[in-house]
Design goal:
By secondary structure, this protein is an alpha/beta fold. The chain is built from eight helices and seven strands.
């Protein structure tokens, strides 16, 4: 007959053996709830932005903002995109405003291609009626996140994409290159390129570190790096803060969970 102490030890050993599985399932439940909350927020966010910008649309700047917001809505209707409208708008204008900086554009963390769609549109600047045809380089495993530490908020295999569907989504744009696999192992073709804008939406700290180590020395002066999840992941915040501790560039926090680095 098992004593209470023996039963406790058996239960603890079983819990320890399945700890990784339990942690992953808890993360899945949490992100299921978060995804539903994002869906509700997006449903209410657009009408308020549309109303606000429509009231002042006679002002040229507000009219341009409205055109961008409407394009973001069309992209959100096509593919899942976790970024809210403010974050997506920030991404769009950063791509647009770095078009005078020498270098290519890159994104690590493509998922379903929503943010890549914004990048391609902003790069060709059809909404804002100007032209820019920088090379665009898109990196993703398309099989979900790689190995993730238990303490991080995301889990292995999260955000599975499909490179064929992304290529189809972006088929109307030129100079788009898609690299499937784990970054930076897939970065060999661009090791001698320079960059004007980089979007790091990789969700886990090691991938942020890899992205910064690869792209920072290849950024043109005035080029920008947009990093996501800075305020929602302590591990990502620690990596970014540590990387730029001895560097001259300030870490510019935005209202959402993004930070911007402008190369000095």
């Amino acid at each position: 007959m098992l004593s209470f102490g023996m039963l406790k030890r058996v239960c603890l050993s079983q819990l320890s053996a399945h700890q990784g599985y339990i942690v992953k399932q808890m993360k899945k439940i949490k992100w299921f709830i978060i995804d539903r909350c994002f869906g509700i927020r997006n449903a209410f966010e657009y009408p308020f932005l549309y109303l606000k910008l429509s009231i002042t649309r006679s002002m040229n700047h507000s009219y341009k903002k409205l055109k961008i917001i409407n394009f973001i809505k069309r992209v959100k209707n096509k593919v899942p995109m976790m970024m809210d409208y403010k974050g997506a708008y920030q991404l769009f204008v950063l791509v647009h405003n770095t078009d005078k900086i020498q270098g290519d554009v890159a994104e690590v963390g493509v998922y379903k291609g929503g943010s890549a769609n914004l990048i391609c549109e902003a790069n060709e600047n059809r909404i804002l009626e100007s032209k820019s045809y920088r090379e665009i380089h898109l990196f993703d495993t398309f099989s979900g996140l790689p190995e993730v530490q238990d303490k991080e908020i995301f889990y292995k295999g999260q955000y599975i994409g499909n490179s064929i569907k992304v290529r189809k989504l972006l088929a109307e744009y030129i100079n788009v290159n898609i690299y499937e696999g784990v970054f930076p192992e897939t970065a060999e073709p661009i090791k001698n390129r320079v960059f004007s804008f980089v979007n790091l939406d990789v969700d886990i700290s090691q991938s942020v570190k890899d992205g910064l180590e690869f792209f920072y020395p290849r950024m043109s002066r005035g080029g920008a790096i947009l990093i996501h999840d800075y305020s929602t992941s302590q591990e990502i915040k620690d990596v970014v803060d540590g990387f730029f501790k001895e560097k001259p560039e300030p870490i510019i926090e935005t209202f959402v969970d993004q930070v911007i680095i402008v190369k000095n």
